[in-house]
Amino acid sequence: MSTTAQLFEEPFDADEYIERLAWRTPGGGSKGGAEAFDPKRLLEEFENHIEELKHLDEKIQRRVEKLEHQCHREAKEFAHKVQDLQRSNQVAFQHFQELDEHISYVATKVCHLGDQLEGVNTPRQRAVEAQRLMTYFNEFLDGELRSDVFNNPEKIKEAADIIQKLHLIAQELPFDRFADVKAKIASKYHDLERQLIQEFTAAQRRGEIGRMREVAAVLLHFKGYAHCVDVYIKQCQEGAYMRSDVFEDTALLCQRVNKQVGEVFQSPETVMAKLIQNIFENKLQAHVKEKLDETRHSDVEQYLKNLYDLYTRTTALASKLTEFNLGSDKHTFLSKLIKNIFSTYLESYIEMEKDYLRTRSAMILQRYYDSKNHQKRPQGGGSIQELKERFRQRTNLPLGPSIDTHGETFLSQEVVVNLLQETRHAFERCNRLSDPSDLPKNAFSIFLLLVEHLCVDHIDYALEIGLSAIPSPDAKNANLYFLDVVQQANTIFHLFDKQFNDHLMPLISSSPKLTECLHKKKEVIEQMEVKLDTGIDRTLNCMVGQMKHILATEQKKTDFRPEDENNVMIQCTAACSKVCVYVSRQVERVRKSMDGKNVDTVLTELGVRFHRLIHEHLQQYSYSSMGGMLAICDVADYRKSAKDFRVPLVLQLFDTLHALCNLLVVAPDNLKQVCSGEQLTNLDRNLLHAFVQLRVDYRQARLGRHFS
């Protein structure tokens, strides 16, 4: 049976169980093991094992029946015990209810008795207190304080309570009958008040927070409580300002005191607010006054810097102090404190800012002109100057002799950067120090000063000088410096525009002053553009004049009618070479001097004038067959120069001119065919005829009939 039990190991598997049984039987394995396979023996073993399993099943069944019987018996016994416990619990619950009712009854009786005792005891306590106060009052009436409470320093708290009550009672007594005793009580009242304040001061010096809290609680009912707070505030500041940075010292002091006032006083927010008010009205105000008054009249620049720095640091300090409990409206409270300190300085701020900026800007400009040994010319004023200006703008003619500036543009990026930096500082101070309602107006007034000194006194003046320095179109070897003026003025205006957007716009963007600023900026731009356009136009005239001078001096009539046509090199003339070199140099100067669409606009205008000049120049000569070839070579080089313009219109004009020059060399019979070509078919017939008339053989070959 033990063997059978071993075969029932968990987990049970019937197939595996049969295999293990067969394996244990000698000769019962699949291969027979050490012995040969014996099926009869295996069958016998199976039959014996089945019998064993039947006996085992019967045994287990009997045991199960025994356990089931025992379980039924114990279940009945447990049910009887539960019923007994339920009956006991019900009895206990009934007893508990009875006890609870009895306790409630007793409690009601006790409360009623307590109310009766309190009703009797409260008048008795009041009577005892009144009797005690009358006893102390009699001592004051007799003039001799015999009670220990008034003579023992250790009972000062009890004495303070008594004297405070006697003081209130004495105020209700008629003065004529109790004047003497009222005076004695008042004297003792003030004496105890002074002693308590001294005790509080001593405890504060010793750092005894508990004692300070006790004394402050007693003094809370005395008139001298405010004086106690003042003493506390004064002592807090002793030794707190040992460094040079009063703002940092104030922040550290308030952080330290804020932790302490909550442990000492019953209304810490009131004490904290009074401490900060004391610091602002005394320490900070004295510091600000000292710093500003010493430079207000002697060094305006330093005064404005100090004012900006002090106001910024004061507002930053106030921002830190908002983390403390100062009452319900601490922001308004701190704003009033700041206003009380700076109001006198802020009222006159903008006028001092404008006066300083005006003086400083004028000095920067004058220092620059002095460094150039230049005596600044007075700009146009009066009716004659205005008339000249209008006449020049309309006619584009120079009035009076040109001025030799020796290549000086009278524009300086260093001066501009200094002016913009001063103005930027002014905008920053204006933003910080101006009242929000006055900020747009103040910022606009600073912008007007920038326009006056940068745009009018510097850029516009340089443009005036540059215009005056432009030579006449017929001048020889003229130096054209106005393009340098254009380049620098363009760079400067970009800096001016950047400051306008970065520093002025945020200050005025949401106010009506924005329209005024934009209008003023537009007006300034238009005035400068008029002068720039005038100067560029006159400069282009000078360029064309210089080209005309080169052609007039270098081009010979024999260039296009050579004496020996059989011994001529087919190449461009010397005049053409010099003109092309000059044009390339001027195109490069224009590209360096301008940017964006302005480059194409100016080069287009220069290219059109260049084409007009060459076109008119070629019509001044007559051309032999070989001379026509030379003219075509010249125009081909002019066309190469036109490519440098990178303007389609200019290149198209020279392509057409090149096609026109073909009329000078084409065989007479082919003239009509050439004139009908793609590039010439849309041109005026008179223009084509004029070019054909330039041929030497025009009359001999009767070429005019081809245009009849």
From TrEMBL:
Domain Exocyst complex component Sec10-like alpha-helical bundle, first and last residues per copy: 158-706
Pfam families according to UniProt: Sec10_HB, Sec10_N
Source superkingdom: Eukaryota
Keywords carried by this UniProt record: Coiled coil, Exocytosis, Transport
Keyword tRNA processing: no
Coiled-coil ranges from the UniProt annotation: 43-70
One Gene Ontology CC term in the entry: exocyst
Any GO BP: exocytosis
Residue span, Exocyst complex component Sec10 N-terminal domain: 39-148
Family: Belongs to the SEC10 family.
Stated name of the protein: Exocyst complex component 5
Lineage of the species this protein comes from: Eukaryota, Metazoa, Chordata, Craniata, Vertebrata
